[in-house]
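Re: export button greyed out
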Amino acid sequence: MGLDIRYPIGIMFAIVGALLVIFGLTTSGNTELYRRSLGININLWWGLLLLAFGLLMLFLAWRAKCRVQQPGAETQQK
Amino acid sequence: MQHVELAWVDYAILLAYTAFVVGIGFALRRYMQTSAAFLMAGRSIPAWVTGLAFIAANLGALEVIGMAANGAKYGIMACHFYWVGAIPAMVFLAVFMMPFYYGSKARSVPEYLKMRFDERVRCLNSITFGVMTMMTSGISLFVLADLLRQLVGWNFHLCLWVASAIVLLYVFKGGLTSAIYTEVLQFFMIVLGFAPVVYLCLHDVGGWDKATDALAQVAASPQSLDLAKTNFPPNAWTSCWASMSGAQNNPMGMDWIGLTFGLGFVLSFGYWCTNFLVVQRAMAAKDMTAARFTPLIAAVPKMLFPALVILPGMVAVALAHIGKDGFTLPKKPIEPVAYARAIPIIQQAANQHTELETVFDDISKAVGLPLSRERVAALLHDHAEGKLSEQELKQRLQNAVTENDYNNVMLAMLKRYLPPGLLGLGLTALLASFMSGMAGNITAFNTIWTYDLYQAYIAPNRTDDHYLWMGRAVTVVGVLASIGCAYIAKQYGNIMDLVQLVFGFVNAPLFATFLHGMFWARATAHGAFYGLLGGTATSALFHGLTIAQGNAPGIKGAWLAHLLGAQPAHVFQSEMAQNFWLACFAFSVCFLLTLVISLGTRRAKSDDELRGLVYSLTPRITDHGLAWYKRPGVVGIVLLAICVVINIIFW
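Workaround output, generated via the alternate export path:
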């Protein structure tokens, strides 16, 4: 099938991660808001993690695409 | 339950997720040219994708909510559903059964039954399976809409229709491929959405050791949290096997024999090895190796999921015991009609200074839930002293309820720990788990309907375009039927019981039929058909004659004994024990009946016709010389060994 699922997953998690990072930055220092998460600015940290995960997925998809374009390397494309 | 406020970022996350799942459906729509592409994903998907979809289709909302509930109710013993009740069966499916499912070129599990036995077995299996999928899908739809209503105060009907419309949209556009691809996205969403809750709750309680200390004290007096009526040994909530010597020693009310045979063998193999919902994912893989690796890849996250879904439930109990920040386990909510009945009684009793003893039963009956005597007394006392407002009365009455609402444990944890932002992510994870489950049910249903009922009996020999059209049309019908079932579930109240009931009746005997079919060439169609019927009838009979402690005769069992005016033949320690033993009996009857009838009837299919369908008549797949991690058998053994080690660690 002509769709590498890692692209949508990567883009979506990158967007969600970026949203959380932005929200985390704008709300940093708001102790009232982060009382629930035990004083940790979890939006910022978890957002960074999601962003990294999204970019990793995109990187994997991009690398797989490069491999297909090189002739004779298809066998590694699993 | 107090609603939570959502911030813009929560809506943005929900929206991004929805846009992507629908987008995947639209991106795939141009590939949907044939019925095989739509209903079977054209058998073209790599193993890691089908593997994650395999597990996500199983990880529906009911699983997430229900397993956190089990974690609170039974403690770490809930992990048996994973480490005993899933991994061995998944390995068996991969190593022994996938070669027949995939190699026979059957398009569905019922079609395999037709090739191996005859039309009757296929018909019986596809009808029961179809009904079962629609019911489970309807119930999870109801649960989701109800949870969203309670948590964020959204309109029940709106949630129900919008959530199913999204599923309909992407399945309608992209068929099974789109369901499988979105399930992979949903898999990551569920894991990454719930993981922060796990981290925060463990951090809050002070680590695993603190949690086990608290749970040991809970086990010694579970009455204090209304978890159980009797005391257990201190390890009852924190050890998998040490408290399994007798049914009275653990909150599950199970002994290890019933558990290993009933859950670990009959129910688990019956589900993982024969349920088309999950098997369909493996059948969509691009080749035999990918198909066999699908359940093996799925087994890895499955083994780790208890940390994600069971642990929060256990920690909730520990937190409630410590009483951190006044945390309590969620109690069953009182319905508005029940308030309307109960409040006048309280008003009157307080005005006339009636003794508690005379009105307590009336109040409990009006509320319809068990109440704490002391709290009702205090409530009456305070109300007689100085008038409480109606709002206060309701609040205090709700606080007097003693029955835990285990299904709300996961939500209580989401609400407690997630600030705006991550709360949106948590809600999205919940929505994702629901959608992956529902899409799984819908895609399984439309394949069974189109190939096993419509093409087989109603309209054979039509063009492929016609079946593609039918597959699309029945997707709409399936979604509408789920919505119908959701409304039935709303009316019906005790919904989980009904699912379990149907699941037990249908699923328990099924694995015996497959076992004979795949490994014994002599098994005949008559044997399989009557064995299956006999097994299902045994389920019904067993359920009609036995009951679990503390249940009234009716939907929970002993209805037949009740009708005949007799005592139940046996009373089990718990419903779970009743279910597991029911499965054992139904399986054994089906197994023996199939055996005996097969020996007494003539084989209708020759060895040639059974090639590729029966173990002894099928050439083995040779994978010698391949690296060990490319051989399903070896990987399966490694997974089982890891599973054993995990069981020993949490012994």
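The interface with chain A takes residues 7, 9, 12-13, 16-17, 20, 23-24, 27-28, 31, 41-42, 44-47, 49, 177, 181, 184-185, 188, 192, 196, 200, 203-204, 416-422, 425 of chain B (CB under 8 Å). The button fix ships in the next patch.
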